[in-house]
Amino acid sequence: MALLSTPRSSLHSMNQARIRTDALFALLRPTALYHRPVAERHRLIFYLGHLEAFDWNLIAPALGLPAFHPDFDRLFAFGIDPEPGQLPQDAAADWPESAEVHRYNAQVRRTLDSHRDEIPADLLRVAIEHRLMHAETFAYLLHHVAFEYKHSPARSLPSPIAPCPVHRLIDIPEGQATLGKSRTRPSETFGWDNEYDEHAVTVPAFAITKYKVTNGQYLEFVRAGAPAPHFWIRHGSDWHVRTMFGEIPLPLDWPVYVTQGEAQAYAGWADGTLPTETQFHRAAYGTPNGDERRYPWGDAPPDASRGNFDFRFWDPISVSASPLGDSAFGVSQLVGNGWEWTSTVFEPFPGFETFPFYPGYSAPFFDGAHYVMKGGSSQTASCLLRRSFRNWFRSDYPYAYAGFRVVHN
Questions:
Q1: Environment class of residue 63 by beta-carbon count within 10 Å: exposed (0-12), middle (13-18) or buried (19+)?
Q2: Strand order in the sheet with 232-235
Q3: Which of 32, 93, 235, 403 is close enough to 149 for a disulfide, judged by CB 3.0 to 4.6 Å?
Q4: How far is 76 from 95, CA to CA, in rounded Å?
Q5: Phi-psi region of 20 (alpha: psi -120 to 50; beta: other; left: phi over 0)
Q6: Cβ neighbours of residue 29 under 8 Å, at least 6 residues apart?
């Protein structure tokens, strides 16, 4: 990779991303770093070291910098996504003291910052987006830490509850959906390996729900015999939801967060299906005249009037709360307020190539067990709201801020 001039905007973005993740760790009481709030993931101390270890392992070799703590470089190198039934078995005592991890982090930052003008631009962009993605991942984990082990910030209060919206279907005419990013056309945005290559797909006509499926709608499914979602808690005959910093009565107008399997089951119960990735693109970025938009609302960059994203709130808002973010067809909140499950298995696009500097980013997950999610949640950074971005999880993963809507073909 050629050494490109590192723009000041990217250096500023890295500083802002560090501030974001530092603030998340600051919400934890010190002893909580050794907790494992999600059984399938590492203890939280891993994530404290992982962000800096990732940056070091990615950038230091490109600059010819010698390792100063190879044991930590290896220990904090990789997260885990274990096969079902194969949970990690390490003990808290197996991990280093947090003070030692903080010293490692500080030295990584000092060393890389002293060479910041030499960092290849693409590597810096990888480091920034990786950190921001982990800010969201860490928010999932933080959500499941016992309330007494977290400091509650001022912005932790949930938004006011609104009346449940009138749900209806919106007809989407047949048309083209352009997926992925072009390798040849200049672009101002970075893309991960699974976002390439750009290709167009003709999407037959379908109908899609205007709003994400709400807690209120899903409650009827539960009353019909379906299991309750992971974030719900029952107290006698009443349902509550676990927010980031406390339990509140179930807000019927919020999007329900479920697994892909639960979303699929609900869609079938409602005589529909989950949208495919191409149907999502058509509903989100298509227009009646055949043009396609950069975002559902148009080409203007994301701002707080368009939806619940970029760490604006800790928890969801009403599914009808941000009409300025509607798509050209009038579909609401296709970006923000919860990722949206699709029925599409996570697979490479035609022309897929791994990054030579990060070959393990996408390819290990092309296993038929992970499904594409689109859109974004309240904890998704604005730069990840681009049309081509793809997220993915296992079909039974219950911890993500992921909802869905129903399609009728």
A1: middle
A2: 232-235, 238-242, 247-249
A3: 32
A4: 10
A5: alpha
A6: 148, 149, 150, 151
pLDDT band for position 188 (cuts 50, 70, 90): low
First to last CA, the chain: 46
Can you spell out the DSSP letters for 258-296? --HHHHHHHHHHTT-BPPPHHHHHHHHHB-TTS-B-SBT
Q: Distances in Å between the alpha carbon of 275 and those of 211, 221, 260, 378?
A: 13, 19, 12, 21
Q: What is the pLDDT of residue 197?
A: 93
Which residues, 6 or more positions from 157, have their beta carbon under 8 angstroms from its beta carbon?
none
Mention every residue, 6+ apart, whose C-beta is less than 8 A from residue 66. Answer: 60
Count of Cβ atoms closer than 10 Å to residue 224 Cβ = 8
User: Minimal CA–CA distance to 143: which of 313, 322, 276?
Assistant: 313
Q: 264, 239, 258, 235: which is closest to 249 by C-alpha?
A: 239
**How many other CB atoms sit within 10 Å of the CB of residue 356?**
8
Query: Rounded CA gap, 356 and 198, in Å?
Result: 20
Residue 98: per-residue pLDDT: 96
Q: Which pLDDT score, from 0 to 100, does residue 81 have?
A: 75
pLDDT surpasses 50 at 3:
no
φ, ψ of residue 218 to 5 degrees: the values are: -70, -25
Q: Say yes or no to pLDDT of 181 above 80.
A: yes
pLDDT band at 5 (very low <50, low <70, confident <90, very high): very low
- Cβ-in-10-Å burial (0-12, 13-18, 19+) of 169 comes to middle
Question: Considering the entire predicted model, what is its pTM?
Answer: 0.93
- What's the residue count for the chain? 409
The CA distance from 406 to 409, in Å, is: 10
pLDDT digits (tens, 9 = 90+) for 232-256: 999 999 999 999 999 999 999 999 9
Helix (H) or strand (E) holding 57: helix 44-63
Per DSSP bridges, beta strands 402-403 and 339-345 are parallel
CA-to-CA distance for 123 and 48, rounded, in angstroms?
21
Distance of alpha carbon 409 from its chain centroid, rounded? 28
Instruction: Answer left, alpha or beta for residue 376, where phi above 0 means left and psi between -120 and 50 means alpha.
Output: left
